[in-house]
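Progress note, sequence design subtask.
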């Protein structure tokens, strides 16, 4: 049997406001950067470094250009996912790429790239196991590529 409940206008208004606030919190957008922005930014920095090194050291340009191309592809794939999931972050993704001065020698450039790629590999390995499953494949793919390029750069 149903019982009749009497609510004052004030109680009804408070209850309604609470229900609306609860519903709005469920629809709230994520705040702050997307978790893929850090690997995206690292990829762009690696592109800048590899491109600067390719221009400064013609004898090693092919190797540095290959790394720049791979990391550019990573940055584009990560940006596509960020734009899909978080269109509110487009302004960050539209920022100009970083500018980098090439290291003093091709060997120093290779070492700097190997370090940067190793850091990207390590950060990606951590992110791949903590991110949403549908993003894990993208992150793991970028991470595996960075691992390969880090080894090749160190050689």
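Output:
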């Amino acid at each position: 049997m149903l019982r009749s409940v009497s609510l004052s206008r004030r109680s009804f208004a408070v209850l309604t406001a609470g229900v609306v606030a609860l519903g709005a919190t469920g629809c709230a957008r994520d705040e702050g950067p997307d978790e893929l922005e850090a690997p995206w930014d690292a990829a762009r920095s690696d592109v800048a470094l590899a491109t600067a090194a390719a221009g400064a050291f013609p004898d090693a340009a092919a190797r540095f250009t290959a790394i720049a191309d791979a990391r550019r592809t990573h940055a584009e794939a990560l940006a596509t996912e960020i734009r899909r999931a978080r269109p509110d972050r487009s302004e960050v993704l539209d920022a100009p790429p970083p500018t980098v001065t090439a290291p003093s020698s091709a060997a120093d450039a290779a070492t700097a790239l190997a370090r940067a790629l190793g850091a990207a590999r390590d950060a990606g390995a951590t992110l791949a196991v903590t991110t949403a499953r549908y993003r894990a494949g993208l992150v793991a793919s970028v991470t595996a590529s960075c691992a390969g390029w880090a080894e090749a750069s160190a050689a």
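The longest helix spans residues 61-85. Work on this subtask will continue into the next period as scheduled.
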